[in-house]
Amino acid sequence: MIKLHSSSYKRVTVGLGLGSFLVFCNLYYFQPLLPHFMRTFNATEIQVNWLFSVTTLAVAIALIPWAILSETYGRRPVMLCSLLLIPVINLLMFFSQDLSTLLVLRFFLGISLAGFIAVAVAYMADEFEPQALLTAVGGYISANSLGGILGRIYGGVMTDFIGLNWTILSMSALSFTALFFIFPRISRQDHFSAHKGRFFHHNRQLLTHIRTPKILLATIIGGLNFAMFINIYTVMAFKLSSPPLSLPASITSLIFLCYLAGTLSAKLSGSWTKKYSTTSGILAAAAVCFSAIIIMSLQNLVSIVLGLLLLSGGAFFIHSLAYGFVGRNARHGKSTATALYLVMYYCGGSLGGFVLISCWQSGGWPMVFTACVFTYLIMAALTVYLSRKSMPANTQCA
């Protein structure tokens, strides 16, 4: 097993971190461009939201199949195949000329990204010692947030300066180049046993996870958390790009620097887990997110930035805690368990966008605020219930 601070630990975590960074750059670099697509294609907020939501929805759909493949053929081949498809699909997007073609290709991009997302934590769970796993998961999620930050800023800034098509082509070239740094650093697995020809076995494992209250509750909490977090950013992007501010994409994309608070909080989640329970951390972070929504209700630039900083810190803390909780509490089929969590997570991100954007269109911020309050109350109730379900093994699992 790979030990914390060993040379193997450093090499593999760098490789997985770079892979995570690349995946989330590609997943999110379209998000700040939604107002740009509204003008380019003369479309509504809901229509252009599909360019982002179809990708996260495709990720959710493809996670379980990729996870099952990884149980059969190994985590590493799945991750490498996933990364290899990214520059190819970006190159095809460079040649697309209409919204429908972009939607189809963004859907296939989501399928390709799902391969890495589905099994990276399962790879770590197989190969890392428990203490190393806790730290590595926090670092991995920090790389997620950094990729999301720079991907969005890249999309906004580059599109303003060189245009959308050349931004896409540049992302294809950068993604291809990154593979030469990532592939050598993801080691072959020493603690994985393939289970070929056991498709129904893996599906039974998935059903077992769904029937396990602790795992199911953690996945629902993760989905609700992401539904609010990611789509508040989309709503704020629409607000900042509209009159009276009418900020360009290159400036609007800078709000995603607030993600840095999430990069820090995700890293700290491992230390929290060593001392306190997962559920207490989720409740505390949910309170921070709720406070952020209240601050953003002032609806000026300063309050929006401060609110997004707090929201990012709280949301990534919840994500890291819930994600790690699922991996630790799945005794068998870890990749299907973590994939189930991510299915809920990305379904929440996709469907939550249509909820919050519909609220924004119909009732402005007061309607968005109401939806957020309702969701965080549900999250708090589910977390209290999860705490009760976890109590007998709290010192071991939570």
3D architecture notes:
The protein is mostly helical and 398 residues long. The protein has one domain (7-179, 206-397): Up-down Bundle (Growth Hormone, Chain: A), CATH 1.20.1250.20. It is built from 15 helices and no strands. Helix 6 (130-162) packs antiparallel against helix 13 and helix 12 packs antiparallel against helix 13 (301-329). The model is unreliable at 393-398 (pLDDT under 50).
Q: Regions with pLDDT < 50 over 5+ consecutive residues? A: 393-398
> How many strands?
0
Oligomerization category of the chains in this entry: single chain
CATH architecture: Up-down Bundle
- Estimated share of beta-strand residues: under 5%
CATH class: Mainly Alpha
**CATH T-level fold name:** Growth Hormone, Chain: A
pLDDT averaged residue by residue: 88
Give short descriptive properties of this protein.
globular; single chain; Growth Hormone, Chain: A; disordered C terminus; about 400 residues; mainly alpha
Tell me briefly what this model is.
Helix content is 83%, strand content 0%. With 398 residues, the chain is an all-alpha fold.
Itemize the secondary structure elements and their pairings.
Elements: H1 7-28, H2 34-41, H3 45-73, H4 75-94, H5 99-127, H6 130-162, H7 164-182, H8 199-211, H9 213-241, H10 249-252, H11 260-275, H12 278-296, H13 301-329, H14 334-390, H15 394-397
